[in-house]
Amino acid sequence: MAFSINTNTTAMAALRTMSATQASLSHTQRQIETGLKVAEPKDNPASFTIAQAMRGDISSLSAVSEGISFGQATVSVANAGALQISNILNDISEKVTQAYNGGLDTSILQEEVDALLAQITNAVNTSSFNGVNMLDGVSPDMDVLTGLGGVTQTIPTQDLRLATLGLTGLDLTDPATAQTTVDNAEDLVGAAITTLGTAANSLDTKAEFSQLLTDKLKEGLGILVDANMAEASANLQALQTKEQLNIQSLSIANSRPQSILQLFRN
Q1: pTM of the entire structure?
Q2: In the chain, domain spans
């Protein structure tokens, strides 16, 4: 076998092998440090591009979830206000029924009803979440972001003000007319509660689906880019051993030219 002190082919081969081993070692170490097998485009351009698109969808779904949560909170407050108004109407209905009794002072009952009517107004005015009031009949309908691509659900604003309910100036001196008025108001409030309750149920379903979709995307993203830590750890140990062998091999290859000196010593 020809041997040259100018060109040490064995050392060059050993150096190439060691460089390849160190590159693999660096890649494996990065997997362990980041927990990702695809951390940047050079790791796997196609997978990285797909992963970035999935990350974008996950971020968008996060915004969707926030929108739904805001809608849920707003509707929940409106539902609570509508329920309170419904309960107040039950109290008013009781007072109207008492007004049929000629032995009671109607003026006292009227004062109690007026106070209850004021509570309805207060309930309407305070049923607001983050500046959005769905019972005042003035605020615009609320569009809730519920899906990717700008999909929204429109929830109509209800009008439970005294004038709309026909309760302004409710007079107990005519109990029959007052009862009819209260019954009509209860029907309107009941319809509002139904609308808001249906909207709340719909938002709950969409929130659950949005969370499920987010979880599935994260799961798919993990399969695509997450490193197998057990495999990476085992591979790291193997590569570290291989690197030591490469260093030893390169050392032996570099020492071979020294053997030519023995010819001159002999």
Answers
A1: 0.75
A2: 9-35+227-265, 77-224
